[in-house]
Write a structure and sequence with these properties.
By secondary structure, this protein is α+β, with helices and mostly antiparallel strands. Helix content is 32%, strand content 38%. The chain has one domain: Nuclear Transport Factor 2, Chain: A (Roll). A six-stranded mixed β-sheet has the order 2-1-6-5-4-3, with helices on both faces. β3 and β4 form a beta hairpin.
Length: 129
């Protein structure tokens, strides 16, 4: 059985190589997906694999290649807190600091949310409790 850290690393790798099917493979059918660019494509939360496909299509129109850089990963029970940076692969040096909070259930991603405020992200990951 893979660790939560390994599962999350697979998700980041899938996004980096543009492999939606590999990303969906590590996500629950009823995943709740709250990406940073959700507001840019007109929706806040995407639900299930169908919602993720909708999100992916919208993001591909804006940023065909995403540059996710992971700087730190903290596993806290079923929560993963990931600090890093995100941007368009074609715009080197223009990376937004972000924190991802990922909740796993049954060794699958059940919820993912991106934060620009680390304090809010740490609270969502229940790190300071």
């Amino acid at each position: 059985m893979e660790s939560n850290t390994e599962i999350v690393a697979q998700g980041f790798a899938a996004i980096a190589r543009g492999d939606l099917e590999a990303l969906l493979a590590i996500c629950h059918e009823d995943v709740e997906w709250r990406p940073l660019l959700a507001h840019a494509v007109g929706q806040e939360t995407y639900h299930g694999h169908a919602g993720m496909r909708q999100w992916w299509a919208g993001v591909q129109e804006i940023f065909p290649e995403v540059d996710n850089r992971v700087d730190d990963v903290v596993e806290h029970g079923d929560f993963m807190y990931v600090e890093g940076r995100i941007g368009a692969a074609g715009a080197p040096g223009v990376l937004q600091p972000v924190s991802w909070v990922i909740q796993l259930r049954d060794s699958k991603v059940a919820r993912m949310e991106v934060f620009t405020n680390r304090r809010d992200a740490r609270a969502a990951a229940r790190l300071d409790q």
